[in-house]
Amino acid sequence: MTIKISIDCMGGDHGPSVTIPAVISFLKQHADAELVLVGLEDVLRAELKKHHAEAHPRLSIVHASEQVTMDDPLEVALRRKKDSSMRVAIEQVKDGKTQACVSAGNTGALMAVARYVLKTMTGVDRPAICSIMPNQKGGPTYMLDLGANVDCEPHHLHQFAIMGSVMVSAMENIPRPTLGLLNVGTEDIKGNDVVKATSKLLQADHERGALNFYGNVEGNDIFKGTTDIVVCDGFVGNVTLKAVEGVARFFADTVKSEFTRNPLTMLGALIGRGALNNVKKRLSPSRYNGASLLGLRGLVFKSHGGADAYSFEWAIKRAYDAAKNDVLPHISTLISELMPRNAEVPEAPASK
Amino acid sequence: MTIKISIDCMGGDHGPSVTIPAVISFLKQHADAELVLVGLEDVLRAELKKHHAEAHPRLSIVHASEQVTMDDPLEVALRRKKDSSMRVAIEQVKDGKTQACVSAGNTGALMAVARYVLKTMTGVDRPAICSIMPNQKGGPTYMLDLGANVDCEPHHLHQFAIMGSVMVSAMENIPRPTLGLLNVGTEDIKGNDVVKATSKLLQADHERGALNFYGNVEGNDIFKGTTDIVVCDGFVGNVTLKAVEGVARFFADTVKSEFTRNPLTMLGALIGRGALNNVKKRLSPSRYNGASLLGLRGLVFKSHGGADAYSFEWAIKRAYDAAKNDVLPHISTLISELMPRNAEVPEAPASK
């Protein structure tokens, strides 16, 4: 079956100079993929021509006359730029022309436009941003919410947990992925009021076999790979994600400056370049690009604004994987199975 | 002037085998310091003997018959173990025998016992945990709260901001240190309700010249060194701190495993060992050991439980610096100056 994905080619800091090479490279690797490129037709054609890909049989162009900039307020993205590449790419999903879309546009605008165009899934109060981080077990740790919801109630975190579980299950082919609740300690008594109440909801789901709740996890567990999924509110998730990116950049810069300090260290770097390249490969955020906006009636993936072509290609790959693994119907089915049940007060089983 | 510090020698994962070598090394570096070692007298004497330091003129021992373990619940530390090395070390501060104390015991117990013995400073509702992180400018970023208060109101964050500012001012000799409020974006409209309300309080202090409020900062700003101080609630601070520690460990392990992969990479590491050692030195959490419990009527410093002697010595050094720089009277003065003013609704200046 062909997987069709629409690409907001104008989004991000670099626009077509990054998105077009990524698109071409992606198509080479995925024979069953078709991409719909959205943006200023002339600009896209010119960029494709540069790469001798104007007549690619699995590429098509949909013109959109406007662009959402990284600084545009939500209102502008939502109400004024109705023919933006971002919005048109999302509309392709809504109209069933593509199964997912990818944009490197600004997160707030993307979430707002996606919610407006696609609507929220039944049973979900608020969509969340879910991304992956590398862990020491060699796998990815899925984490949500990473910034869509800065004030959360327990039932929001509960919904994130369900969506995240289904996502991991479908994307990683893990039948019962483990779920951790981000907290300041592992003991039950730890945490703020929202987290404590959430823990009870998740524990109840665990007991009825609906979720595989591990319990509380701490910040370092994200990278240990203690659980497949880590759930938190968008404030904590966003701050943590950015702090981790900051420390990773600090680390990378320090390694670079120390290894270029003098001829001897440069020789060491030259001889050990295999090791340094592997470190870069294993830890590079580029490979973990592509956050999903979960809880919408359509698949929307967000690339880092500053992504290069290699990194943007990873975001397309995530969207492709999600479409191929039917993530959306899986979430929808399980939300509708679990959420009504969760809404009811579970009755004690009749003692005969 | 002599600086006297009491040391809980029994705390942490390793007890005297770590604390005693740290103490001896510290005294060599600081001719004006006197240390009071608290713990089981026999054990401490035996350990000192090993290091030929039994008769050190600037060392004394105060016997304490009990120890707070890393797993002891607060109640046990607080009500049952009244002769613990942790408590006796803190009592030395209370009784004016020492100017600060250091413990590697469990954080919750240390905070509870310290609050009970020393009491909270006038004008401070809740003490906070303040520590430093390295930043790309080469300086430390002070951050608080790192876990003492998981549910915070704006006036709590406001107090943390004042305490942090005074701390940095005294410790780093910066007259008007810059203060950032940890948030999910830099714009004023960003954040949850607590953060938005806190921002207004800090802005008001900034306008009247009481604090040097920079505005909102994001997770990566901690490591960029955008501001001297970063303020957040204890939930966010604790999760962020542990996530950063986790990613740093992941990074260090990855570098190690890649450079020991084969003879060539090992040669690279050998030749580039100067660079690798410098990376380790610049980023090692050991050098940033020693969190202060701010807002008490006495200086208490907390070392990581798993600290080695080198790292524990850094915690002693922080306590020494804080005592030497009169951090406590500075905080006390400024809190009493600022907090009553803050409590009043500032009147609009009469228009002539």
Automatic annotation (TrEMBL), chains A, B:
Gene Ontology CC annotations of this record: cytoplasm
GO molecular-function terms, A-Z: phosphate:acyl-[acyl carrier protein] acyltransferase activity
Enzyme Commission (EC) number: 2.3.1.274
UniProt record, GO biological process: fatty acid biosynthetic process; phospholipid biosynthetic process
Reaction catalyzed: a fatty acyl-[ACP] + phosphate = an acyl phosphate + holo-[ACP]
Compartments, as annotated in UniProt: Cytoplasm
InterPro entries the record matches: FA_synthesis, Phospholipid_synth_PlsX-like
Pfam families cross-referenced by the UniProt entry: FA_synthesis (PF02504)
Assigned keywords, A-Z: Acyltransferase, Cytoplasm, Lipid biosynthesis, Lipid metabolism, Phospholipid biosynthesis, Phospholipid metabolism, Transferase
Pathway: Lipid metabolism; phospholipid metabolism
Assigned protein family: Belongs to the PlsX family.
PANTHER family the UniProt entry points to: FATTY ACID/PHOSPHOLIPID SYNTHESIS PROTEIN PLSX, PHOSPHATE ACYLTRANSFERASE
Subunit and partners: Homodimer. Probably interacts with PlsY.
Function: Catalyzes the reversible formation of acyl-phosphate (acyl-PO(4)) from acyl-[acyl-carrier-protein] (acyl-ACP). This enzyme utilizes acyl-ACP as fatty acyl donor, but not acyl-CoA.
NCBIfam families in the record: plsX
Name listed for the protein in its UniProt record: Phosphate acyltransferase
Source organism (scientific name): Duganella fentianensis
